[in-house]
Amino acid sequence: MLVRQATIVDSAAVPLEGVLDIYADAARSDGQVGPNSFRGPIAVGGRSRSNSNRCAELGLDTEIVPGVSSFSAVAAVAGRELTIPEVAQSVVLTRLEGGKTPMPPGETVRGFAQHRTTMAIFLSAARSGQLQDELLAGGYPAETPCLVAYRVTWPEELVVDCRLDELAATMRTHKLWKHTLVLVGPALAAGGTRSHLYHPGHFHGFRRADPRQRLALRAARGALAGQSAGDSPGRSSGQESP
């Protein structure tokens, strides 16, 4: 299909039913292709499922072409990692409850914050004060690093570092209330421990471990397990962490 023959529709101004009408027109016309470009992570929010299900009902073949999720793009632009060994090994993707779409029971920002791992928080910039309060109430220390990201990978992108107790003020200063993603968690701080996967003492199917480095790595793991045993009675100090 030539570009000059394409019809461009701004889906932001059209509800799902309007987009489905476009798909239906394509189903009635041989040879038409209807690409739909999504903003943000395509697998979050139910958008791809709603569209794919309707296309299946119409007998239209679909293909989902993955892009770079916004939370990954923010980390890349800021030069940060979302997981750091011994600091944070999980990433929670969520949003502040109380918005237009109800949250399932048990899924709250305050509840997730109790884990003190990395969180990527969508669709919450308009309630920045409430977001900051919930994160602090959940257990993040006031000095926890945050990244406030607006339209990352767009020409007007903005990424701002701040402490958690400065989060709401930072968003108000920059007048951010939509198209904004917040990353929070200790892994966002510069520095941290290295991954054992790339340690010279680690072996896998493509590389043998250096014997001396292997002993050093095992000793370090044993020391870490001993520290954990001090916090958790009954755990052997010689147990290796995974």
Kindly describe this structure.
The chain has helices spanning 16-28, 47-58, 70-78, 109-113, 128-138, 167-173, 211-231, and strands at residues 91-95, 118-122, 145-150, 158-163, 180-184. Helix 1 (16-28) packs parallel to helix 2 (47-58) and helix 5 (128-138) packs antiparallel against helix 6. It is an alpha+beta fold and 242 residues long. It has 7 helices and 5 strands. The model is unreliable at 232-242 (pLDDT under 50). Strand 1 (91-95), helix 4 and strand 2 form a beta-alpha-beta unit. The protein has a 5-stranded mixed β-sheet, sandwiched between helices. Helix content is 32%, strand content 11%.
Main traits of this protein?
disordered C terminus, 242 residues, alpha+beta, single chain, 32% helix, globular, 7 helices, five-stranded mixed beta sheet
Question: Would you spell out the secondary-structure blueprint of this structure?
Answer:
Layout: H1 16-28, H2 47-58, H3 70-78, E1 91-95, H4 109-113, E2 118-122, H5 128-138, E3 145-150, E4 158-163, H6 167-173, E5 180-184, H7 211-231
Parallel strand pairs: 1-2
Antiparallel strand pairs: 2-5, 3-4, 3-5
Helix pairs in contact: 1-2, 5-6
Percent helix: 25-40%
Shape: globular
Low-confidence stretches: 232-242
Largest sheet: 5 strands, mixed
Strand content: 5-15%
H/E series: HHHEHEHEEHEH
What is the strand tally? 5
Query: What is the helix tally?
Result: 7
By secondary-structure content and strand pairing, the structural class works out as alpha+beta
The first-to-last residue Cα distance is 52 Å
